[in-house]
Amino acid sequence: xxxxxxxxxxxxxxxxxxxxxxxxxxxxxxxxxxxxxxxxxxxxxxxxxxxxxxxxxxxxxxxxxxxxxxxxxxxxxxxxxxxxxxxxxxxxxxxxxxxxxxxxxxxxxxxxxxxxxxxxxxxxxxxxxxxxxxxxxxxxxxxxxxxxxxxxxxxxxxxxxxxxxxxxxxxxxxxxxxxxxxxxxxxxxxxxxxxxxxxxxxxxxxxxxxxxxxxxxxxxxxxxxxxxxxxxxxxxxxxxxxxxxxxxxxxxxxxxxxxxxxxxxxxxxxxxxxxxxxxxxxxxxxxxxxxxxxxxxxxxxxxxxxxxxxxxxxxxxxxxxxxxxxxxxxxxxxxxxxxxxxxxxxxxxxxxxxxxxxxxxxxxxxxxxxxxxxxxxxxxxxxxxxxxxxxxxxxxxxxxxxxxxxxxxxxxxxxxxxxxxxxxxxxxxxxxxxxxxxxxxxxxxxxxxxxxxxxxxxxxxxxxxxxxxxxxxxxxxxxxxxxxxxxxxxxxxxxxxxxxxxxxxxxxxxxxxxxxxxxxxxxxxxxxxxxxxxxxxxxxxxxxxxxxxxxxxxxxxxxxxxxxxxxxxxxxxxxxxxxxxxxxxxxxxxxxxxxxxxxxxxxxx
Length: 605
What we know:
Elements: H1 15-22, E1 30-39, H2 51-68, E2 72-82, H3 92-102, E3 108-111, H4 114-117, H5 121-135, E4 138-141, E5 146-147, H6 157-187, E6 200-205, E7 208-213, H7 218-231, H8 234-243, H9 249-255, H10 271-279, E8 287-289, E9 292-294, E10 302-304, E11 311-313, H11 323-342, E12 361-363, E13 371-378, E14 384-391, E15 408-410, H12 411-425, H13 427-431, H14 433-477, H15 483-532, H16 545-551, E16 552-558, E17 562-567, E18 594-598
Parallel strand pairs: 1-2, 1-3, 3-4, 12-16, 17-18
Antiparallel strand pairs: 4-5, 6-7, 8-11, 9-10, 13-14, 14-15, 16-17
Helix pairs in contact: 5-6, 7-8, 7-11, 8-10, 14-15, 15-16
């Protein structure tokens, strides 16, 4: 069955014709309307453009229409965007409106005027003249007298296009004026940023927003500068603030509490937060703004501007520190910078190497991922060697109480512990390599057979869904199935197809991973055999990132160099899997260390 194409000269036709195309589920002669209202971010927006006023104008139009016409309009919902520009359609409220339009819940869109719908001439025209007619949606702009469901709109199309073009030009002109106004306010010393910097409040003085000292935190800022000048260390200042339980800026803005209340979880200062305050010109009364700009098309896209384009205003507000303090602070910063630049780089020529434990090593106390550190050790004969290890950032930190004591382990200690654990875990397989190989091959064969069965099942299901979709589509085109019901079916069917495809990929990855892990494990067995026979072999040649992530799911490190290992393999792959060696015999080369291993099923012996 074929359907005639709607004439381009009649974008939406009469009300009854619109219903027959756009929403088979709606009752004849009744439109389900969605009222759309938008208010831009312009602070000087006229009062009669408010969201409430726009909605009220649209509802009044609906009441008057229903009183004097046979085809009724029912308001199904209101969709609003507050503080959104009209130069693009990337707006949450508009997206919800279009979603309901596509589902068939809305077949009439009402706005106060075309400028509230959008100020981009090309995109607005595309919706009004193409997308809405194709979906069978009636569009009404009340103040402009534009209604695609009413007779005589062919003559109004040109006026609509001219009005949209004027709106587009207005948006561009307004953007230029807004930028000029913003630059002028900056030059006059107005603070045009977001939340005020720590130590200040932002208050309106006439038409300018000014920074004034915050009596609660101004002394904290002065103390930060004083302590920095005394200690010449950002970290010392950070630790001091955390020991005093002074809330950082983000927490203070949220709670209004300068100090952390007793019994509450404390989220302390970072060194970077202290450094930002020390380096800021704001606290000496100097306001520097306009360092970045955004584009109208993408408000999240920030462009960093060169320093000569920044707007600087001297004595813009009351300073929190005097000239002497600012000069001393700058001197300390310069001293720290010169000290760092004067040092010969000790690690030159000693590469740091790959972090093989990056994805598996965690603190056993707080659960945080361990951080790698390294340094270059210089011997008496002049040779150098890179050393290193791992530590928990929370361990012994003043910022949080989650990990009260220091938790560290060196690369050598961790590697030797893992070698000893491997030797205990894989003793049986070291003796029975042939049995392991046969078992692994059989499992791969079974997995492949299972994969083939699942692939055949998925293909059969896809064929059945394709045939079912054809029947649904014919029912929709013949009018036996509403657009809403057809769209809901299509979405459900596509979800099922994506799930089938995801399972297909998963089965293939499992088979590939099984073969790869088996080969990797065999390499480890051979390496461990050589190691056990005391054949010289460097640890780095055995413990690779791929090997560690294949055999080990997680490694937990505890204070005192205690280590717990969670393996990835299970009984179905290795005969010794799931068996553990808890409280292993003392390791001569690592005094005081202890080790335990746990299979993926969590079992331990």
